[in-house]
Each structure stands twice: as C-alpha cells, then as structure tokens.
Amino acid sequence: TLFVGFSTTFMNLFEVQAGMFKKHIKFKTLYNKKNQPGQKTLKAQSIPNLQEFIELIFLKHSHVQIIVGGSGPTTNNFVEIYEQEIDCWIKGLAEDSVIKYIESLKNNEKIPRIIEDPFASNFNFHELEPSFYPEDTVFQHEVLPIEISRGCRFKCKFCSYPLLGRKPSDDYIRSEESLYKEFLHNYENFGTTQYQITCDTFNETTEKLERVKKAIERSGIKINFWAYLRIELLHTYPEQISLLKEMGISSTFFGLETLNDESGKCIGKGLGRDKQIETLQKLKDAWGPDVLLHGSFIIGLPYETKETAKEWTDILIRRETALDSISINPLYLVPDKVIRSGKTSRVFFSEFDLNYKKYGYTKTDVSWTNN
C-alpha cells in the first residue's frame, strides 16, 4: 500500500462553525507524523473514528502516505486542521494527478504538498466505464452515486468547485452508451435502481436530460434518483419538468441561496423571489407529494442585512413555499493563509474568496464581518 486517500468534500467535520472548534470541542492526543516517533500533538476531536484510523495507519505502517481529495469549505477546513497528518492534497479532478503522484512515490521523488489539476484532460470521461465492482463491497440494492457530467456552465461568485463556467460539451458529459452500460451493470451486479446523481447541475440542458432518459429506457430498468437542479432552468425550459418526472426523479436539491433579490443578482442567481416561489409550486403541483424539494440558503451575501435576512427566512420557517425541507448556512470565505498555499486563481477559489474587500467583507481569524 502506497497511500490511503480520503474524500472530504461532504465530510461533516463539526457541529460548530469551522474555525471555532478550539473553543468548543474537547482536545485529544494524536500522533504527529511530522514530529519524531513517540511525540504527540493535541488535535481537536473532530471525527474520533477518523483520528483513530489515521493514528493506526501511522503507527503500524509509517511509510503509507495519507492524501485527501475534495473541493469547497469542508476540504479547506480539513486540510487546515489535519495539516500535520496529510502528506498531499490532490485538488481538482484526480485521474491524471494520482498517476503522476504514484509514479513520484515509486521513484522517491519530492512530491508537492498540493497537486492541482481542474481538468484531467487526458482522461476520457465521455466514455467512462462503470465505477463499482463486486470487490467494492457494495450492498445489494444499495443507493449508488453516479457522475453524469463534470463542472458547471454557471459561475456563482461564492462557488469554488473546478470547471466553473464551462460550456456544455461532450468532453464533460457522458455518452448514452456509457450511461446505459453503467445502469445495466449496477442492476445486474447489485440490483441497484436508486441513484444520487452528483452533477453540479443535472438539468444544465434539455438535450443532456434526453440523453440520460434514452439510456435508462434502453436498460429497461425503472430507476429513481436524487439530483442537484437549477431552478432558473426549470423556469425557462418548463419541458424539463415532465421529462424529469418520466425519468424517475424522487427528490432534488436546489441551491436557491437567498430570497433577497439584490443578493441573488449579485451572485449570479437573478430569477427573483416571486418567480422562485412560483416555480417551486409549479414543480410540487406537477410532481406531487412523493417528490421532495430541498432548498439550500446562504446568510451573509452582499446586500444582505439582519433585517432582510430575518424577513425572508421567516417566509421559509412559516412554510410559505413548496419546499419540503431547508438548510441555511453562513457564507464561507477561505482564510487568506489557505489561499496563499495554492494558486490564487478563480480555478480553485471563489470570486468572494479572492476579492472579498470589493464586496464589503473584512476577514477575521475565524470568519468575516461586513455591514
């Protein structure tokens, strides 16, 4: 074994806001890979089982490297907190980078702490083969993730995922044949009919949805799925509503972010409150109660005040929309020291991360402030 890798994008590190963990969470002893054997360092008790696992890897197999992959706020927090234990962060799309990393390990070459590649251009994603095999200990009828496209045609100012603003292209969208093979393979091996579709924007084009629908129909399998959808596209292209229902949608995640129209326009989501609420109701009427609608929101976007935030969050809490569930989180800005550790480009950091002063933010040690 050369390394153990952790996917961190959706790790739930803490029950408290990142950066405040030292004040709220008990400390625990953990071996520090960068110190001499036998020395210890204090670490926040974030994920106890994970800490113990890292400790066991180091104590039993000190030559095995620990690497992480992932995007977004959780990964930045993870890298900062486990700075001493992590040997390398493979940032972006890893298919090309991880091969270079393995070759460097085998040749005893010096490996940079962060390896960045937002494109993985040598990897043929369009004709991706099935991702799961029996040796992966997949349970029968397990809900599996499926990646149908990479990147996003939009470029929201708070987002730092790779491949933002890319045009719809077969380079980043799988073929009908590739999808057909995976649906059939997963059903024949695991009986899987339920999926989490992990595309940043599943409904980026109607043509893409039609391609997926054809692959499902070819497989002869009745599936249901969860996906990230963009509400502006459902408003502009209402034909997608019936198409998604026919394909088997059972629940969806909308990054609505705000019901404050000024804030929405600033971040690149300018549909407006009235049309958002109207479209959500249209979806609920068309899809019925068995399809669950989740809305995610951000507090602290530009043009937000305590008064405006209270006004629109009260609308959500009083259930005056067709949403079945909501989540509300504060805006996250990457600490400057994290930005300095990597390339300061829009490829890996959000517009707000890099140009926060322009939007009225002041960064503090643990968070940010504005008016």
Present the secondary structure layout.
Layout (H helix, E strand, L loop, with lengths): L2 E5 L13 H4 L2 E5 L8 E5 L3 H13 L4 E5 L2 H10 L6 E5 L2 H12 L7 E4 L26 E3 L29 H15 L3 E4 L8 H14 L4 E6 L1 H6 L2 H9 L1 E9 L3 H7 L5 H15 L4 E8 L6 H12 L7 E6 L5 H5 L10 H4 L7 E2 L4 E2 L2
Parallel strand pairs: 1-4, 4-5, 5-6, 7-8, 8-9, 9-10, 10-11, 11-12
Antiparallel strand pairs: 2-3, 13-14
Helix pairs in contact: 5-6, 6-8
CA radius of gyration: 22 Å
Q: Estimate the strand proportion.
A: 15-25%
Number of helices: 13
Mean pLDDT: 86
How much helical structure, as a percent, in the residues? Answer: 25-40%
Alpha carbon gap, first and last residue: 51 Å
Q: Globular, elongated, flat, extended or rod-shaped: what is the shape? A: globular
Main sheet characteristics? 6 strands, parallel
| Global structural class | alpha/beta
- Looking at the chains present, what oligomeric state does this protein adopt? single chain
Low-confidence runs of at least 5 consecutive residues: 15-45
The tally of strands reads: 14
Element string (H = helix, E = strand): EHEEHEHEHEEHEHEHHEHHEHEHHEE
Strand order of the largest sheet: 7-8-9-10-11-12
